[in-house]
Input
Amino acid sequence: MTDALTTKPFRWPVRVYWEDTDAGGIVFYANYLKFFERARTEWLRHLGVGQQRLREEVGGMFVVTDTALRYHRPARLDDLLVVTAAITESGRASITIAQTASLQGLDGRPDTLLCEGSIRIGWVDAADLRPQRLPPAIRLALGLT
Amino acid sequence: MTDALTTKPFRWPVRVYWEDTDAGGIVFYANYLKFFERARTEWLRHLGVGQQRLREEVGGMFVVTDTALRYHRPARLDDLLVVTAAITESGRASITIAQTASLQGLDGRPDTLLCEGSIRIGWVDAADLRPQRLPPAIRLALGLT
Amino acid sequence: MTDALTTKPFRWPVRVYWEDTDAGGIVFYANYLKFFERARTEWLRHLGVGQQRLREEVGGMFVVTDTALRYHRPARLDDLLVVTAAITESGRASITIAQTASLQGLDGRPDTLLCEGSIRIGWVDAADLRPQRLPPAIRLALGLT
Amino acid sequence: MTDALTTKPFRWPVRVYWEDTDAGGIVFYANYLKFFERARTEWLRHLGVGQQRLREEVGGMFVVTDTALRYHRPARLDDLLVVTAAITESGRASITIAQTASLQGLDGRPDTLLCEGSIRIGWVDAADLRPQRLPPAIRLALGLT
Output
């Protein structure tokens, strides 16, 4: 039986542009939250979960409730990163996703971990932002039983 | 007679933080649009125009329709800038605002112009984003006859 | 004979994520400058021009000196945009690039223009930011004679 | 005896602009890291620690090594926030700072906590980004013994 907690992490490439860097010559640390979200969004899309559509049809949306990031090494302009996403926990109204950003290894060399973190997202009513149970369609798409 | 086209430009201080810089060691050029908007927002607030409130009460909002910026000199981390805003044109549904960002001169020395531009904003219905005539309350606050 | 001024524009896909939107429910206008730069960077990379490498090897970099954008229609969360870049003018130390962002047409329908603009970039010494003549390697890569 | 661990948190006002919001109508969660950094920077400046100057004179800079944020309630356009910063731990090459962002209470009412977190920053050589002992001038300014 396959389920979300045992499958391989989803992988998404992210290129570093000028907009991502700061005067330290490296990627501004807050931007890893953006990279992580792009990967989560593409992972959801890959599983058939369109956020804009869900908001229009179900009136709900994901909000981030907790983030915890650890920065190991810096990324620089033009670097090609690989960002992963994998569910580590799920509740009635929220899921927790483990994410990493690594420098893609060239010529068969392994990737180099740059940043890793944990993001907890909750499902809320789009109008009043109150927590709601995850819609069955999302639970199904995510492989949550 | 006082009117918007003859009064002194509004001035607003903006400090440069890490978030504003890029790997060139200078302020990322797109961020001057943010600095300009902060000054426009504070200038509107100063004139009694609250955008969030207007959206709730009148159902309209400003959208930017044209921007033109020229970059003269770079700003760097920790620099203290002065951003100005002054109306240069107004129509039924839009106004054009001249803006500058300068490095604040210390000890009585003059400011140094870093970036100047022109921003055209239109008033739209918040729901369908269609152009609307500027509400009388805004015309009055801006000194437009 | 092919040259930069006659070839088709370079095209680069850009997906709209949460980070790109604002409380108006649409893409924040300043972010089109980021989208345009991603396309310029990928276009340069496609032509063999790596900016980080050039900075290390030649000690120079591009800086943006002028931007002019016109916003036609808004983009929204999850939209897939196509961003183009094509040289329209070139001088000794600068080039001007025409750019557009369009909503990608589905099922063979045409793209819908959302934003168009003109970006002038100059080549400068990375240390003192003074204008420099465009290096021959870049002129060659860009098809400038 | 006064020291950094017992003094009141530093407070810094942050206004919410369009640039800070997302299509959910609220402040984009990654931007609290920016708000927190603005407050840390102003707190350091208040203590006499100028980051740009330190980088030029000492060749070192702070880098963020860990962030952990919890989001309690959303902030919206035009909200006036109060951001705090206070040291909770210090080591040879790093310090940990507890930070909060709250909606400023009007008319004497208490502030409402929106987001709280912990940021660990390390002192590194600006050239190779290797960890360095905190310079005595910084330890002194921060009240670390």
Summary: The domain at 10-141 of chain A is CATH 3.10.129.10 (Thiol Ester Dehydrase; Chain A). The beta strands of chain A are 10-15, 60-71, 80-90, 94-103, 112-125. Chain A has one domain: 10-141.
